[in-house]
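pinging the channel bc i need a second pair of eyes. not urgent but kinda urgent?? the chain im working w is below, pasted from the shared doc
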Amino acid sequence: MRILGIDPGLQATGFGVIDVDGPRMAYVASGTIRTSPAEGALLPERLKVIFDGISEVVQRYQPTVAVCEIVFVNVNPQATLILGQARGCCLTALVANGLPVAEYTALQLKKAVTGHGKAAKEQVQEMVRRLLELPGLPGKDAADALGLCITHAQVARTTDAIRQVGKLRARTHAAYKDGRIY
């Protein structure tokens, strides 16, 4: 399985690509798609840069699945709205390129990668470096995108194991009061 992770942002959208074969993960690529208001680009033009950048990454690396971070609500509603538009642009680019998309929160990413839901960006960078055996630290946005890939690789492995067992059955060896079983 080849996973493409996206950490959405209007100024910097991080991406990461890893290959997964069972428990083994291998780094393929990572980077950042940057847009800047300083160049005079308006919001729609900046969103197009993100859309085109993600489409180019999909065409170049041919992932089988994509993962995108779920945006949290900021104190500043305008910043949240703009971030939501950038995230929507990312999701649209992924779906337009025919990819199934999974979504995880920053808390889920941090727990999966570092074991602690309130880990700092630097801790995520270091653990991504170690887990993927990179020679140096990836950028913060790329590290988050690679962390999303790692999170999905772990979740997919668990989900596949559950599917192989079959449908979950109710336990009949223990009962609550009134005969209800769990």
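so The CA atoms of residues 171 and 182 lie 5 Å apart. and The helical segments are 43-61, 77-96, 106-114, 121-131, 140-165. — does that match what u expected or am i reading it wrong
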